[in-house]
Amino acid sequence: MKEQNMGNLINIEQALNLPSPLFVDLRSPLEYEEAHIPGALNMPLLNNEERALIGAVYRERSPEEAVDKGFSLVAPRLPAMHEKIKELSQTNDVVLYCWRGGMRSESLSQVLSILGTKHFRLEGGYKSFRRYVVDYFDREFAKEAVVLEGLTGSGKTELLKRLKEEGVPAIDLEGLASNRGSVFGHFGLPKQPTQKHFEGLLFLECFRYKQSPRIVVECESRRIGAILLPARLYQAMQQGTKVLVYDRMEKRVERLAATYLPSLSAGSEEQLRQAVLKLRRRLGHKKTAQLLVLLEQRRYEEFVEMLLVDYYDPLYRYPAVPSEDYEICLCGSDPGHASEIIKRTYFNC
Q: pTM higher than 0.85 for the full model?
């Protein structure tokens, strides 16, 4: 890591372009949980209750008393925080930030500078990162989208992961949103991020591929669970190059069963039952009852196939076999071969 003046104040673009940036979020755990710079380490100067207390003192008494109270709470933690940041700075470009680049990051930066610990401080704090992300997605999306289309279970997600592992600019939007974009999309996945945090995650993926004129994504509706895709990105996806991914019904059933069923437990089976009931309006009472019987009897592969035939396939209406409507048609059973074709056709490799 290059030598630097202690506690350099840098903007978000400079921070993102550091050789090995490691963001350290000094805000409270609740602030961090709502949204943070992806990959940031939370090292709160104040916990949630202490932050609320300091805020009350600031409003009801005086700023000076709030500062004094805050220092008394923070001071005992400074030695351990210094040691941790000193350790991190040996292999990373440590960048401190708080909400607006104010008192929390500035006060710790002063202590670290006195002690000779190399670090940077983010000008404008998390707020500057958020503004940068909003501005990025407000502009016309600069990359061409190569969009994988196909029936549910055809292997689009596996192909995306294969491309990403092989260094191709590919973004798993469902993975970032922690939802597979259907009435069953949340099963086996962690809680969805907030909209703000999703946009931060998505921005860093795009930033990682800033040198590429194209990205590969899976076809999605604008809404993925509770998350909305940025309008400019969604427009680029609508106008992008379409690639069909197809596979045999038995492979699709096998793939979906392997994706969803390992996460089932007694509680999630009831959630799955409730999700099936939400399909009654589309499928009718008879088919919904049949699905519930298959689920109750744990005939999972029959359950999955019926969902595909009666719900997913009529909903999405993609071809089940190669189609002349697409420039490229790829079989999901061989993601390695499919990946090579995409690389050769769109990325000259």
A: yes
